[in-house]
Design brief:
By secondary structure, the protein is an alpha/beta fold. It has one domain (11-200): Methyltransferase, Cobalt-precorrin-4 Transmethylase, Domain 2, CATH 3.30.950. The protein has 4 helices and 9 strands; from the N terminus they run E-E-H-E-H-E-E-E-E-E-E-H-H. The chain has helices at residues 47-60, 83-98, 174-202, 204-260, and strands at residues 11-12, 25-28, 62-67, 100-102, 113-123, 130-138, 145-147, 151-156, 159-164. The strands form 3 sheets. Strands 1-5-6-3-2 form a 5-stranded mixed β-sheet. A two-stranded antiparallel sheet has the order 4-7. Strands 8-9 form a two-stranded antiparallel sheet. Helix 1 (47-60) links the parallel strand 2 and strand 3 (62-67).
Length: 263
């Protein structure tokens, strides 16, 4: 198993780590972690790529996926990493593990695998920040782990490489088949969400202008309707007044005719 570098005791903002990316280390610049969980199925997030890195680490023996670090090793930290988000990250890590099998289709041996998320505070930052690390360790054979869909990832010179083969389902592994299908469907939905969000962001100004024009049009139309109704009501009112006056004059003339002008 490849040896892992020694992690710092203290994580200092803007300082550089004494090691770089390698077969066993991957840096990820994540400024605000909630973006990774924008939806229940996180579209446009780095989580699918993080999954590949984790599998690559397991297939090479071990590795650290370190978030909040620039590519050159400078410590920046992750903001807004609450306990709730850590819980969600750990649940996601568990999901990654449940979708893994050995390349012969047999179930993973949990006594040979360590997969966990850790959080360390960053000192010297202007706002609260931390470094998030996913540690992956596998004590079995190298290049022995694949997804239930038959995808295998390995690490070479700080990069991930994929190899695909026939799905490694066993006849009695119905649950695994269902899980793999669900994962594939979720990935497709995530990609569609990502495309939609990109289009929305690209055309948000046009959408805002169109909504403004629609609102102004509706307001103008409402003013016209109110004006027409007001005019109609006023006309009815004036007509009623005239009728009332005519009725009053008729009664006066009738009274004079019947009572005062008789011979």
């Amino acid at each position: 198993m490849a040896s892992l570098p020694t992690l710092p005791t203290n994580w200092i903002y803007n300082e550089k780590l004494p090691f770089g990316e390698s077969n066993t280390v991957e840096f990820k610049e994540v400024a605000r972690f909630p973006g990774l969980f924008k939806h229940e199925s996180p579209p446009a997030s780095g989580l699918p790529k993080y999954r590949d890195t984790i599998i690559g680490f397991l297939n090479s023996g071990s590795g650290y996926l370190i978030m909040g670090i620039l590519d050159n090793g400078t410590i920046k930290g992750v903001a807004e990493m609450s306990d709730e988000l850590m819980d969600r990250l750990n649940l996601w890590v568990d999901t990654v593990y449940r979708n893994l099998v050995y390349k012969d289709g047999s179930q993973m041996d949990p006594t040979k695998t360590t997969l966990r998320a850790m959080r360390f505070s960053v000192e010297g930052s202007t706002e609260p920040a931390c470094v998030v690390i996913i540690e992956a360790i596998h004590k079995g054979e190298i290049l022995d782990i694949a997804t239930r869909g038959g995808e295998m990832v390995y690490r070479l010179n700080a990069s991930n490489y994929k190899m695909s083969s026939e799905p490694v389902y066993r006849k009695n592994d119905v649950q695994g088949m269902i899980f793999a299908i669900q994962t594939r469907v979720r990935d497709v939905i995530q990609e569609k969400h990502r495309v939609i969000e990109t289009l929305q962001e690209r055309h948000k100004d046009e959408m805002a202008a169109a909504l403004k024009r629609e609102r102004e049009h509706n307001e103008a139309e409402l003013r016209n309707i109110v004006s027409e109704v007001s005019s109609s009501l006023y006309s009815m009112y004036r007509t009623q007044q005239v009728k009332q006056k005519q009725t009053t004059y008729s009664r006066i003339i009738q009274f004079l005719t019947c009572n005062l002008l008789r011979p």
